[in-house]
Write a structure and sequence with these properties.
This protein has about 400 residues and is an alpha/beta fold. Helices cover about 40% and strands about 20% of the residues. It is globular, with a radius of gyration of 21 Å.
C-alpha cells in the first residue's frame, strides 16, 4: 500500500527545503569504453527528466536539479569507484543515475554508495547477482535482471526454430551472468548449448575463440558481449572465416554501432533488449527527438525513468536526503495512483505535494518488483537490409 501524504504535512516538509535551491544528481555511464555508443543517449534521457522537472518549477519548493556527469568506463571498477567518491564527497550529489555495466555498478554500490548511504538507480546493470547484493535498500534498477533476459532470449531463439547454439560472453559479471542464465533456460526448454566460452575485450584478433566455437557447432552464435569491444571482434572473425552466419544479440550488442560495423552482413540475425511499445515509450521518443538525441536507443528510456524516480521520491519525502527518500521509490513506481507518463513530471510533482498518490509508468512502463528492479519488457529485433528493425515486443 502506498503511504498517503496529507497536504498539510507535505507543505511543512517542502517548506524545510526552502533554502535548498540546488539539488545535484550524478549521471554515471560509460562515456568511454565498450558501451560508449549508448552513453550519449542514456545521459540524454536522464538529463531530459531533470530539465523537465526544472521547467515545471514544482520541485521541492522551487529547487533546481543539476546533472553532474561521471564516466563509469563500463569496465574499470577502480575508475568507477573513484568517480562515485568524487560525486559524493566533492560534488555533493544527492542521488546517482547509474552505473551502466554490472561490474562497475556493483563496485560503486558496495565500495562507495552503501558506506555513504547514497541512492543509486541503474538504467542498465542487468546481472542477476545484483538482485541479492546487500544494498541497505539503496539500490534500484529500471532494467530487468538477466535472469529474465535469459528466458526471453530462449523464447526468441526457439520461436525461430533454432535448437542448438554456441555462446560466447565477455568475461565479466554481466557476460557470465547472462550466459549462465541463458544456458540454463535454453537447455530446460529442450535446446542444446554446444559450448559456453568467455572472450576478453580489447583483443585485435578473435580467430582462436571463433575457431573453438565453430568446432563445437551450433545453428547460431549467441554473442553476450559489448558492441564497441570484443563482441564486434567476435562477429568480424566469424564472418571472415564463415564460421557462423546467424548471430543472436543480447542487450549489450544492440545499438546503431552494430549496423554501422556490419550492415547487411548480419541480415537475418536477431536479438532483444529491454523495451516496450507503450504509450509512454512513444511520447518519450518524440520528446527525445525534440531535445536532440535518439530515444529509440537501448536504455535511453530507462535512464529517463531512473532520474524521474529519484526526483519524484525526493518530492514525496520532502527531502533530497537519500535516507529520507529511498523508502519512497517503490511506492512512486507502482500502483495505486494517477498514472504518470513522460512529459508529466510537473503534474506528478504537483500531485505529490497535494498528498495524492501517483503510479509512475514513465517511458519504459515501469513496474518495480522486490528488491527494487524492473519486472521486464523486451523489444525483439532483427537485422534486415542492414538496419535494426522491430520484430515484436515481449
Amino acid at each position: 500500500m502506498k503511504k498517503l501524504l496529507l497536504a498539510s504535512a507535505a507543505s511543512l516538509a517542502l517548506a524545510s527545503m526552502a533554502t535548498a535551491q540546488e539539488v545535484k544528481i550524478g549521471t554515471v555511464v560509460g562515456f568511454t569504453g565498450p558501451l560508449e555508443s549508448l552513453a550519449p543517449d542514456m545521459a540524454g534521457g536522464s538529463e531530459l527528466a531533470m530539465n523537465e522537472v526544472n521547467a515545471s518549477g514544482n520541485f521541492l519548493n522551487g529547487a533546481t536539479v543539476v546533472s553532474v556527469r561521471g564516466d563509469s568506463t563500463c569496465i574499470d571498477a577502480a575508475a568507477a569507484t573513484a568517480v562515485a567518491e568524487r560525486l559524493i564527497t566533492s560534488d555533493g550529489v544527492s542521488g546517482i543515475v547509474g552505473a551502466d555495466c554490472s561490474g562497475v555498478t556493483n563496485a560503486m554500490l558496495q565500495n562507495v554508495a552503501v558506506p555513504n548511504g547514497m541512492v543509486m538507480v541503474s538504467p542498465s546493470a542487468t546481472s542477476p547477482a545484483l538482485t541479492t547484493v546487500e544494498d541497505n535498500g539503496l539500490f534500484f534498477r529500471t532494467a530487468p535482471s538477466d535472469a529474465r533476459q535469459g528466458v526471453v532470449m530462449t523464447e526468441v531463439i526457439m520461436d525461430r526454430g533454432i535448437k542448438s547454439v554456441a555462446v560466447t560472453y565477455t568475461n565479466n559479471d554481466y557476460g557470465q551472468g547472462l550466459a549462465d542464465s541463458f544456458a540454463a533456460a535454453f537447455e530446460a526448454a529442450g535446446g542444446t548449448v554446444t559450448l559456453v566460452a568467455a572472450h576478453e575485450d580489447g583483443r585485435a584478433d578473435y580467430s582462436a575463440e571463433v575457431g573453438a566455437l565453430a568446432a563445437a557447432g551450433g545453428d547460431a552464435l549467441v554473442v553476450a558481449g559489448y558492441v564497441d569491444q570484443g563482441g564486434s571482434g567476435i562477429i568480424r572473425a566469424a564472418l571472415d572465416s564463415g564460421a557462423f552466419e546467424t548471430f543472436v544479440f543480447p542487450d549489450g550488442m544492440v545499438s546503431s554501432a552494430l549496423v554501422g560495423n556490419f550492415g547487411s552482413e548480419i541480415d537475418g540475425s536477431f536479438g532483444q533488449h529491454p523495451g516496450t511499445d507503450s504509450e509512454g515509450a512513444a511520447i518519450f521518443e518524440t520528446l527525445a527527438a525534440e531535445a536532440g538525441f535518439d530515444g529509440t536507443q537501448p536504455f535511453a528510456k530507462e535512464s529517463y525513468d531512473a532520474a524521474a524516480l529519484i526526483m519524484l521520491a525526493m518530492q514525496a519525502a520532502g527531502s533530497s536526503n537519500p535516507a529520507d527518500y529511498a523508502g519512497e521509490i517503490m511506492d512512486i513506481a507502482n500502483a495505486p495512483g494517477t498514472p504518470i507518463l513522460p512529459g508529466e513530471l510537473g503534474k506528478a510533482l504537483e500531485l505529490i505535494a497535494a498528498g495524492e498518490d501517483i503510479d509512475y509508468v514513465g517511458a519504459s512502463a515501469v513496474e518495480l518488483i522486490e528488491p527494487g528492479e524492473s519486472a521486464g519488457n523486451y523489444r525483439e529485433i532483427e537485422i534486415s537490409g542492414g538496419e535494426i528493425t522491430t520484430a515484436r515486443f515481449r
